[in-house]
UniProtKB/TrEMBL annotation:
<protein>
    <submittedName>
        <fullName>Uncharacterized protein LOC142171969</fullName>
    </submittedName>
</protein>
Length: 144
């Protein structure tokens, strides 16, 4: 499911909510644009099977995220290179938010002090990302 997310005072688009990811991931270039690279905590980790390969992180960063008025401090692994999405929110974020995603309904529900809130998936962005993925995979198929 693709959503938008407020990080600090920035609205970040192309955020993937990924039940299969064991980490929250942010791209280096997003932090560069926000002038936050100085806040990165040096740490290297190996993310296995990320983008069909293994990727070494450039560090970690703690950032406040705001979803429908619910503020959470989120730990992100910082990677350099293109992953298609600006941020990937994995199981750590979903557990912290106590969020229940529904891929069928393209909906993310989570409790707040004011009651249950929800975020709808960004269907136009998801379709755009799917089209990019399909076009980049064309020509990579090999004939046997």
């Amino acid at each position: 499911m693709v959503i938008s997310l407020n990080v600090l005072d920035f609205k970040i688009k192309r955020v993937l909510v990924d039940l299969g990811s064991s980490a929250n991931i942010i791209q280096w270039r997003v932090l560069e644009q926000a002038k936050l690279t100085g806040s990165i905590i040096p740490a290297t980790k190996l993310l296995a099977e990320f983008n069909l390969a293994s990727v070494t992180t450039r560090g970690e960063i703690l950032l406040p995220t705001n979803v429908e008025g619910l503020m959470k401090t989120t730990l992100f692994e910082v990677i350099d290179g293109d992953m298609g999405y600006n941020i990937i929110l994995g199981r750590p974020w979903l557990h912290e938010m106590k969020a229940l995603p529904s891929t069928y309904d393209q909906l993310l529900k989570f409790p707040t002090p004011e009651g249950i809130k929800q975020i709808r998936g960004d269907q136009p962005t998801r379709r755009e990302m799917d089209a990019i993925s399909v076009s980049s995979n064309k020509g990579k198929e090999h004939a046997s």
